[in-house]
Amino acid sequence: GENVEQHPSTLSVQEGDSAVIKCTYSDSASNYFPWYKQELGKGPQLIIDIRSNVGEKKDQRIAVTLNKTAKHFSLHITETQPEDSAVYFCAASRLTGGGNKLTFGTGTQLKVEL
Amino acid sequence: GAGVSQTPSNKVTEKGKYVELRCDPISGHTALYWYRQSLGQGPEFLIYFQGTGAADDSGLPNDRFFAVRPEGSVSTLKIQRTERGDSAVYLCASSPNGGWSTETQYFGPGTRLLVL
Asked: Which residues of chain B have pLDDT under 70?
């Protein structure tokens, strides 16, 4: 089955700096890569996703890049703000027509310091 | 409209007891997923429903775990003879269609299960 590794486990940045979180996956057939933000006591919330036919996607301060050859993808947050502090999870799945079973990484605790 | 809701928000039970966890998906969403999240880990897939049927139950850890979705909306995750290792947050997610399209999964807040 799919295995997703995520680094770093914790990340502390100063407000206004950029943050980068990296993930690798094992199943070359995976074709969907979402990123979720989880705040304490809440469920994960999708912040951005990318399909395997696209190398990069951007949404305001958030961007994701995908390298299919190397089987890794990254989340980039620019101009970080205190409200960006949360746990971020990457995930991967193989869309087969039988659902979208996500395999998650172990999470990155991002802390944005004033 | 309303998001995915889960009840109870917290459940404390004793080892060996039976528990039921409920998920109300977003209205009209045909796909429903259950995940389990242990402390400090990412969610792990348990089971996927398309409509009323369990299309993929490969993530259920053993036969003590069972889930139903009799009318294609609300789903109940049932755990028999609970063990301390079952303690975790149980997350439910729904999406409009679990087919080929890349549909966002919308997660509920989870049920925190503690088995004493």
From this structure: 1, 98-102
